[in-house]
Design a protein that fits this description.
The protein has about 450 residues and is α+β, with helices and mostly antiparallel strands. It has twelve helices and 24 strands. It has three domains: about 80 residues, Zinc/RING finger domain, C3HC4 (zinc finger) (Herpes Virus-1); about 140 residues, Cysteine proteinases (Cathepsin B, Chain A, Alpha-Beta Complex), CATH 3.90.70; about 190 residues, Cysteine proteinases (Cathepsin B, Chain A), CATH 3.90.70. A hairpin with a 5-residue loop joins strand 1 and strand 2. The N and C termini lie far apart (about 55 Å). The site of zinc ion has 7 residues, from helix 2.
Length: about 450
């Protein structure tokens, strides 16, 4: 606790402002004191960027100011600025507050500029911001990027930065939504010092709350992480809103008809909700050097035309059809057999796709009308061969291609690296999860 009364007299605060080193400021990490590891009452020293608990006499922040001669601090929770050891509160410094916690008005959300300037006055595309790979979290980064480019989801979390009842409830009750929201706001910030942010604060929490099912250090299936994250965000939001932006944007329903082993007798028909639909590939070539097959995504989607019967077991076949209305965004998982942790090399079948796909053939409709979707983003897998010749030295890498809607250009985001790419050549990649957006 801070027990010393605030000093009334004016200290020469201006004399410390020039000691701030913006190059080292980074508020993306867990707000933990570097000395006591406590989460309470943590300050950032704006000279060296380190976090210290403080600011009473003999606290780590106080000791830091006495021993190292650094004097200007920011309380990471209250967002107030102080001079130590004088214990004098000073006026907030706006660009630092914006870096810590970017805020958006409704107007800001609707009128985001296309570009902004970083600390070195270098231009960057707003929203096309890299995410650091701290250890092995590229499989999580691609999912965060994919969700951050779904407009209603993005807008919801940007608007949460303005305090209202919902924001307060979420901040207090759902750490997952709160930290996910802060990260989305940083990804779309126009106030960044550098064009990449660290997902550490969110992913550290994910690791704790999922009991290391999804950790920063061990690569897992991005699809499993996606479903875990959507369930987590949705189930906690639904306590405060009737329907959630997650389910409104992404959740669809599937009619499943189950047949006997001969595929003749109908055993049951059920409807089930989904976040993701999976399409299956023809078997991968058995031998190295065999030609890699090419298939059309629309022919893989025939699995959902209500006619195709899929073998589930010796005694069961199933047919599937999507139920109207389809969600505004459809997530398609192309099953390359990568769901097991030890599999680093996926089925390499090339999946061709058109820019726009009509989903009408896969939906139960009274009057058939086209339901067109356009590709918004696609997560791709790469198998990287190491120095060793044997298969154990193969590593998976994940990146995402995202369409910039303003001018229809494409960007590849691979962890902290963001660069333009050619939309026409995307089908050549080992596409693994795609998000399609309904064309209104
Ligand atoms: Zn310092």
């Amino acid at each position: 606790m801070d027990i010393r009364p605030l000093k009334k007299q004016k200290v020469q605060t201006d004399s410390y402002q020039h000691t701030i080193n913006r190059e080292v400021l980074n508020f993306d990490f867990e707000k933990v004191c570097s000395v006591t590891l406590s989460h309470n009452n943590v300050y950032c020293c704006l000279v060296c960027g380190k976090y210290f608990q403080g600011r009473s006499i003999s606290s780590p922040a106080y000791n830091h100011t006495i021993n190292i001669d650094h004097h200007i601090f920011l309380n990471l929770k209250s967002q107030k600025f102080y001079i130590l050891p004088e214990n004098q509160e000073i006026d907030g410094i706006q660009d630092i507050k914006d870096l810590l916690d970017p805020k958006y008005t409704k107007d800001d959300v609707n009128n985001l500029p296309e570009t902004a300037l970083d600390l070195h006055k270098k231009s960057y595309y707003v929203g096309y911001t890299g995410l650091d790979n701290i250890s092995n979290n590229d499989y999580e980064n691609v999912i965060i990027q994919a969700l951050s480019h779904i407009r209603p989801i993005r807008d919801f979390y940007l608007r949460l930065s303005y305090r209202d009842k919902l924001h307060d409830q979420i901040q207090r009750k759902s750490i997952l939504n709160d930290r996910f929201g802060i990260l989305i706001r940083k990804l779309w910030s126009i106030h960044l010092y550098r064009n990449h942010v660290s997902p550490h604060e969110l992913l550290q929490y994910v690791s704790e709350v999922s009991k290391s099912q999804f950790s920063l250090t061990v690569q897992k299936s991005p699809k499993k992480f996606l479903i875990w994250l959507l369930n987590g965000l949705h189930s906690q939001l639904v306590k405060y809103t009737k329907s959630t932006v997650i389910s409104e944007s992404l959740q669809g329903a599937l009619e499943i008809t189950s047949f006997d082993g001969d595929g003749v007798q109908v055993k049951s028909t059920t409807t089930s909700k989904f976040w993701v639909i999976t399409v299956d590939l023809p078997p991968a070539p058995l031998f190295v050097g065999e030609t890699i097959q090419e298939v059309q995504l629309s022919s893989l989607l025939a699995k959902y035309n209500g006619e195709t019967k899929v073998h589930i077991s010796k005694d069961e076949l199933r047919s599937y059809k999507l139920v109207e209305p389809l969600p505004p965004y459809l997530i398609i998982h192309i099953d390359r057999g990568l769901e097991k942790e030890d599999v680093k090399k996926g089925n390499p079948t090339v999946v061709q796709f058109q820019d726009v796909i009509d989903f009408a053939p896969f939906v139960t409709q009274e009057k058939p009308t086209p339901i067109n979707y356009r590709l918004l983003s696609t997560i791709k897998h790469d198998s990287i061969t190491g120095d060793e010749i044997d298969e154990s030295d193969i590593k998976s890498e994940w990146s995402i291609n995202v369409r910039k809607k303003v001018d229809d250009t494409w960007f590849t985001i691979k962890d902290s690296e963001v660069k333009p790419c050619q939309g026409e050549l995307l089908f050549l990649d080992e596409n693994y999860i795609q998000i399609w957006e309904k064309v209104e």
